[in-house]
Amino acid sequence: MKPAQGSSAYKRLVAAAAGLKVPDAVREVATAPPRDPEPGQIWRAVWEQTIQLLVITTVDDDSVHAIPVSLERYADAHTLLLPAEASTLEQPLALWWGLKQPLPWYVLDRQISQLTVPLPASLHPDLAHDPPSGACWGSTAPSPATAAAEYRGVLADNLARLSAARWVPEGSGALPQLLQQRGITPQQLGSQLQLPPAQALPVWRGHHPLTADQAEKLAVLLGLLAQEVLAANPAPPPAVVHELNRPLRRRQLRALAARHLENEQQARLRAAYGILTLAARQDDRTNTDWAARADAYFELRLGR
């Protein structure tokens, strides 16, 4: 929980931050365009109200394995303590190795720093191995009531929430049945969505997904919520999901959310079905460049 802006704790935090010298390497990373994660990077992860610093250990197609990172104030036997020169933050760090978790790409918000030493080859602190030069393992907390144990519990809760984060809809694909049950003809659908017959028929048959804007219009006709109509779309293809999972899309998604006065998860759905609909209109549908389609979608919707 962060301190309220009017509190003395918040004022002390602001004063402390104002006195910190930001290393040039950190400033360079923080101002660079976001990129895909790599092992050894330190990232800020954000999902809803949870914010956590972490170091990436391994990277898969849509997930990473990560360890929570904190300034070296608390530690336990499962914490690797790194000296200031071990990262571009130039601050002593605590890596809470025992809390390593797989996390989805889309919780990664911004790269903060980079380790300058290799991580230990062993992924479990109980196994005999030597830490990097200048690093050491922490000591066992004397009792569960210690501040270190409480802090470890907070970090564990943060990692659990980040690991459980989800945005991809199941996608029932039941839109055709929903329209037919309500007696909606392709002509009525086209009239409601202001689509020509050549575009209305594929939507009516469930071959093309509804965009978020179209779902809102159709929801009025069906007497349903827009999210219920969107849920009847087919699930977005994994390639579209992967493209929107990339950290470089997060700034665009937040701008889209702000434009439509919705949360980030709703903006992700809006973008997923918008990109899919845009791709459905191209001439060559056998070899879709989803990165280019995402670029085109955000350029169209945000002008950037």
Descriptive notes:
The protein has helices spanning 8-18, 24-31, 147-163, 175-181, 186-193, 197-204, 212-222, 226-231, 238-245, 250-260, 264-280, 290-302; strands spanning 41-47, 50-59, 63-71, 79-82, 93-96, 101-104, 108-114, 136-137. It is an alpha+beta fold. Strands 1, 2, 3, 4, 5, 6, 7 and 8 form an eight-stranded antiparallel sheet that branches. A hairpin with a 2-residue loop joins strand 1 (41-47) and strand 2. Helix 5 (186-193) crosses helix 6, helix 10 packs across helix 11 (264-280) and helix 11 (264-280) packs across helix 12 (290-302). The chain is elongated and about 70 Å long. The two termini are 34 Å apart. The mean pLDDT is 83.
Using the CA coordinates, give the radius of gyration: 24 Å
3D shape: elongated
Helix content: 40-55%
- Number of DSSP helices? 12
Secondary-structure content class: alpha+beta
- Largest sheet entry: 8 strands, antiparallel
Spell out the helices and strands N to C.
Answer: HHEEEEEEEEHHHHHHHHHH
Portion of residues in beta strands equals 15-25%
Distance between the termini: 34 Å
Instruction: Give the tally of β-strands.
Output: 8
Mean pLDDT: 83
Unreliable spans? none
